[in-house]
Specification:
Blueprint: H1 2-5, H2 11-29, H3 34-45, H4 53-58, H5 87-105, H6 108-120, H7 122-131, H8 145-159, E1 163-172, E2 175-183, E3 188-194, H9 201-215, E4 223-229, H10 238-245, E5 254-259
Parallel strand pairs: 3-4, 4-5
Antiparallel strand pairs: 1-2, 2-3
Helix pairs in contact: 3-5, 9-10
């Protein structure tokens, strides 16, 4: 979108951008289901009275015949097809359709299970790093929740391109919060907890439920995963905690795992 928005009158730049978009458009159409294809195509084609991407790309620097540089009118813009009202909204519309297709084609329950499997191997991961550590390259040592978040963030970066740390949740009743991580591609929010003195079975569950009530208001939230790191074995019954907090049948599925 930035490349299209920044088009200049340079012929080679325009030609390259047109070709790049048309290649993308041809590929993207193959992934759009039949019931959304007409809408996706309309964002490109436009019509006789509505200019969209096609009209903008054809001549992005064409001036409006009603525009007069020596007698400007605030109601008349300079360009015949301004990006902000033609290609811009259409590109956002196409992106939204593809996002909906991605969400519909992926099972969020599968994503939760895959992420859970990875997180449960965290102790093994730590032992492997320790085996190869040295004074010049020491292994990471999780001392607190901040250290846990740093390690989880690094692991998530191996799995997903778009990992958003501390993504903002809109204010509600004067309170605001941030999720630990949002996997924008999958719509999964990940929360991390590390047990300590005073933070064990009941307290962990209570804090997670309170946080989840806020996280579910995030516009991109499709599911929530809580990774509870318990190296000191402070949680008496991890199986019960996981079962009590995990619900795959909810509108926004939740899953909690205890790692130790």
């Amino acid at each position: 979108m930035r490349a299209i928005q920044s088009l200049s009158s340079d012929a080679s730049t325009l030609s390259d951008t047109q070709a790049a978009y048309h290649r993308w458009y041809a590929r993207a159409r193959r992934f759009v289901p039949e019931d959304a294809l007409a809408r996706f195509t309309d964002f490109y084609e436009g019509g006789q009275f509505v200019t969209r991407i096609k009209g903008f790309l054809a001549n992005p620097s064409k001036e409006s015949p009603f525009y007069k540089a020596d007698d400007p009118n605030p109601l008349i813009v300079q360009w015949q097809h301004p990006f902000e009202t033609t290609a811009g909204p259409a590109l956002l519309g196409q992106r939204q359709i593809l996002t909906e297709v991605l969400y519909a084609s992926s099972s969020v329950a599968t994503v939760l299970e895959e992420l859970s499997d990875v997180a449960r191997r965290l102790p093994e991961y730590m032992r492997t790093l320790e085996r190869y550590s040295s004074s010049q390259c020491p292994a990471p040592n999780i001392l607190d929740e901040k250290g846990l978040q740093a390690l989880i963030h690094a692991i998530l970066r191996l799995l997903y391109a778009d990992v958003r740390a501390e993504d903002f949740v809109s204010q509600h009743a004067g309170a605001s919060s941030r999720v630990d991580f949002l996997l924008a591609e999958a719509g999964v929010i990940i929360e991390t907890k590390m047990t300590r003195q005073g933070l064990a079975d009941r307290k962990v569950g209570e804090e997670l439920l309170i946080d989840w009530g806020r996280y579910k208001r995030h516009p991109d939230c499709r599911a929530i995963l809580a990774i509870v790191y318990d190296p000191g074995y402070r949680i008496d019954n991890p199986t019960a905690l996981e079962a009590g907090l995990s619900d795959n049948s909810a509108d926004i599925p939740t899953k909690a795992i205890v790692v130790r």
